[in-house]
Amino acid sequence: MLFLYNIVIRLYGLAIFIASFFKPKAKQWIEGRKNWQQNSKDKLQPNEKRIWVHCASVGEFEQGRNLIEAVKEKYPQYRIVLTFFSPSGYELRNNYQYADYVFYLPIDTKTNAAQFIQTVNPALAIFVKYEFWYHYLHMLHRQNIPAIIISAPFRKEQPFFKWYGGLFRKMLQCFTFIFVQDESSKELIKNIVDETKVIVAGDTRYDRVLSIAANKKQLPLVEHFIGNDPVLIAGSSWQNDEKILFESLSALPANYKLIIAPHEVSQKRIAEVLQFFEGAVLYSSLSLQKNYINDRVLIIDNIGMLSSLYQYGQIAFVGGGFRTGIHNTLEPAVFGLPVIIGPNYKRFIEANLLVEKEFCFPVTNAEECKAVLINLSGEELYYQNIHQALLAFMKEQAGATQKILDLIKL
Length: 410
Prior knowledge:
The protein is an alpha/beta fold and 410 residues long. The protein folds into two domains: 13-211 and 399-407, Rossmann fold (3-Layer(aba) Sandwich), CATH 3.40.50; 215-396, Glycogen Phosphorylase B (Rossmann fold). 45% of the residues lie in helices and 16% in strands. The protein has 19 helices and 14 strands. It has helices at 2-19, 24-31, 36-43, 58-74, 87-93, 110-120, 134-142, 166-173, 183-189, 204-214, 220-226, 239-248, 267-276, 306-309, 330-333, 349-356, 366-378, 380-396, 400-407, and strands at residues 49-55, 78-84, 101-104, 124-128, 147-152, 177-180, 198-200, 231-237, 257-262, 281-282, 297-299, 315-318, 339-341, 360-362. The strands form two sheets. Strands 3-2-1-4-5-6-7 form a seven-stranded parallel sheet, sandwiched between helices. Strands 10-11-9-8-12-13-14 form a seven-stranded parallel sheet. Helix 12 links the parallel strand 8 and strand 9 (257-262). Helix 4 packs across helix 19 (400-407) and helix 6 crosses helix 7. The longest helix has 18 residues, at 2-19. The mean pLDDT is 95.
């Protein structure tokens, strides 16, 4: 199985290399890893104590961010080495103030893992949510370096629980602690690893979004566009999400405005949104001197505003559910916004919980979306009951970061 794993890893690297001639992100992936060993040696200072934190991309970074900052505060004598697998995370967060060093993670070969761990020499390794790399985990375990994974969700369809999953089960056994999101995840893995190593800590993203809500940024141009009107905010949308929104907009009262923040903001994607919402206003063109009383749709054509944008909404539509999976439903939920999503949400523990509590509404087509919008926008008491219950629920979920921090001993 390890032989096959090594082949797949190398084929993956080759595929990215070939794609780098055509796709900018693939090129960043390759370029960011060139001469990684010498570059890291040049930057790392001698005689430092270090903690290594690894995130796949920006979503996992946001999930681990509160813990990184809590660890930095508790152990200021340690330097934080933050690594990303994807360009999306690295390019956005390579200047993160609580990380002393930010690198791309070299591809998971035995040689790379040995050299990276020897170079970084961490006192502790923290992996966020989904990251399982055999050679890195095996090398950490072999050298008796504590390794933990946080906010990990497990589902029975994952390879850990299949007849062919022996190598993946070995990866789990390399962790000092596995902090899972819920009891069902613990039940799934407690027969694979020592049960005392598996702690139900919850999801650190609740702590993160509560922190964002407490420190939300004011957006004067958005406030000017909205005026006193209620708003439906569509976050991290894709083309098929926007089609549903376009076909459903007539279900909202005439005074409702729509703000769309696409998941990607390339010229091509913005043009795709404009095909549905011709005449929509772009955020980059907003002015405090203009009157937008007759404008109904605003398109956010930049990155980084969404988490604070939700404070202005009454209802949220989170994209991705008509593709491979939904994006962050907790960001609007923390402001008490009922959330509409597409049907592909089953893999996400937090989304399932929100659906179960009737704070989140999965739809499969425009007719279903219209029905939800009519109820949420037309029944004030119904809406307020959801809004208040959701705010209370989100506060109740806090505390995962502290539970993890309490078990980190350096």
